[in-house]
Specification:
This protein is α/β, with parallel strands linked by helices. It folds into 2 domains: about 15-55 and about 305-435, Lyase, Ornithine Decarboxylase, Chain A, domain 1 (Beta Barrel), CATH 2.40.37.10; about 100-295, Alanine racemase (TIM Barrel), CATH 3.20.20.10. The protein is about 30% helix and about 25% strand. A hairpin with an 8-residue loop joins strand 17 and strand 18 (about 375-380). The longest helix has 20 residues, at about 230-250. Keywords: Amino-acid biosynthesis, Decarboxylase, Lyase, Lysine biosynthesis, Pyridoxal phosphate.
């Protein structure tokens, strides 16, 4: 097993975690609650593992973000990054809160449309859009395609002419700015696969402006995810503003700038990215350009709204070392700790377990991979077999990244809204795992 990641501060206590997660409360009788609903009651009825999302949190965070932009005097079009959480109910809630969609596949585009998001509020991003996906974007008449290469631009132009359509295009540029985040979620430094190289952007924009079927409108940028400081945004947007001015000086019109997303949340004790600071940076660096502005929030809105409920299968004692606490949830459910070494808070559901004496333990799942680990040598209240826990901040890049590895059915999903709750995706049956599989006749009935 890899060495645990060391932190300069002690692990937050249950009380400290709840202080940074106001959407959760600990009742002395009912235990951990979300919007007044005891999470144990959901676990009793639905079982574990189980995802639970807070509709109220989604609305509140969407409103807080839009309020920050308005307070800064900005008119900004917000497009939720569907890759963060693509459930139809979540998209519907956010659409009603005024958000459009940022999609990266045909499936996400169709999900957004199914959720009631108009095509005029959909932006298509991504480095590898297929011909079929670009045809769909043209047929739907979406707001814009963020083009990431000269090759993609030529393909889109040819398809637009063939379909007798015109598509608004923003060139996604790579500003070569380090977002200061995990290497696997940074997207704006030289060497990343994303975006047009900085020194090629103006020439490609000039070329785009003359292509048939293409309405070159401006530039897009996204430098990474889980950004907590203002400096990376400021550096990237300053470069973007300079590019807009240079483009106009070259005699080309620029009417739109897509600022991307990336605002981070507080998983441990690192503090949360501030929408007010983000809005202030956009205002300072881009506010005088007289362009239509857009942002693509994802994690900041959805992550704190969700938890993953799980049950302790057993305690495995290890002589001279921290015990293993084996959960019924696994890396096939929540991949982030295995993929990114991500830290997620873990809080017992029971009020008695939540105040139990602390111990150091390693929290793992049952999947046959050493990487199936949620927390290494974590200080937590002592957890016995049958105890239930909530893994925090899983509303983004949680259920959406799940798989059925080890033939483990997809977990149920539940939505809580103002004291009410409903299953929004039932637990997948074991039989459904092979429902679409066939065995060729020559194997079933060999000659």
């Amino acid at each position: 097993m890899a060495e645990p990641i060391s932190f300069s501060t002690p692990d937050p206590t249950v009380r400290e975690l709840l202080a940074t997660h106001p959407q959760l409360t600990l009742d002395v009788q009912c235990g951990l609650m979300m919007e007044g609903v005891p999470l144990s009651a959901i676990a009793d009825e639905v079982g574990t593992p189980c995802w639970v999302m807070s509709a109220g949190t989604l609305r509140a965070r969407a409103q807080r973000l839009s309020g920050a932009m308005m307070q800064a005097g900005l008119s900004v079009s917000s497009h939720f990054a569907v890759k963060a959480n693509d459930h139809l109910a979540i998209l519907k809630i956010l659409a009603k809160a005024g958000l459009g969609a940022d999609v990266v596949s045909a499936g996400e585009l169709l999900r957004a449309r199914r959720a009631g998001i108009p095509a005029s509020r959909i932006v298509f991003s991504g480095v590898g859009k297929t011909e079929a996906e670009l045809r769909l974007a043209l047929a739907e008449g979406i707001a814009q395609v963020n083009v990431e290469s000269a090759e993609e631009l030529e393909i889109l132009s040819a398809l637009a002419v063939e379909c007798r359509r015109e598509m608004t295009v923003l060139l996604r540029v790579n500003p070569d700015v380090d977002a200061g985040t995990h290497a696997k979620i940074t997207t704006g430094v030289a060497g990343n696969k994303f975006g047009v190289p900085w020194d090629e952007a103006l020439a490609l924009y000039r070329h785009a402006a003359g292509l048939p079927g293409i309405r070159a409108a401006g530039y897009a940028m996204h430098i990474g995810s889980q950004i907590l400081a203002a400096a990376p945004f400021r550096a990237a947007y300053a470069r973007l503003a300079a590019l807009v001015r240079a483009t106009r000086e070259a005699g080309l019109a620029v009417s739109a700038v897509d600022c991307g997303g990336g605002l981070g949340i507080c998983y441990r004790d690192e503090g949360e990215g501030s929408p007010d600071v983000w809005a202030g940076v956009i205002r300072a660096e881009l506010g005088d350009l007289d362009v239509r502005l857009a942002i693509e929030p994802g994690r900041w809105i959805a992550a704190p709204a969700g938890v993953l409920l799980s049950t302790v299968v057993l305690r495995k004692a290890v002589t001279g070392e921290a015990p293993f606490i084996v959960l019924d949830a696994a890396m096939n459910d929540l991949l982030r700790p295995s993929l990114y070494d991500a830290w997620h808070g873990i809080v017992p559901l029971s009020p008695r377990d939540a105040v139990a004496a602390a111990e150091t333990a390693t929290i793992v799942g049952p999947v046959c991979e050493s990487g199936d680990t949620f927390a290494q040598e974590r200080v937590l209240p002592r957890l016995e077999r049958g105890a239930r826990v909530a893994v925090l901040d899983t509303g983004a890049y949680g259920a959406v990244m799940s798989s059925t590895y080890n033939a483990r059915p997809l977990a149920a999903e539940v939505l809580v809204d103002g004291g009410r709750w409903s299953v929004i995706r039932p637990r997948q049956s074991v039989e459904a795992l092979w429902a679409g599989e066939t065995i060729p006749d020559w194997i079933k009935h060999p000659a």
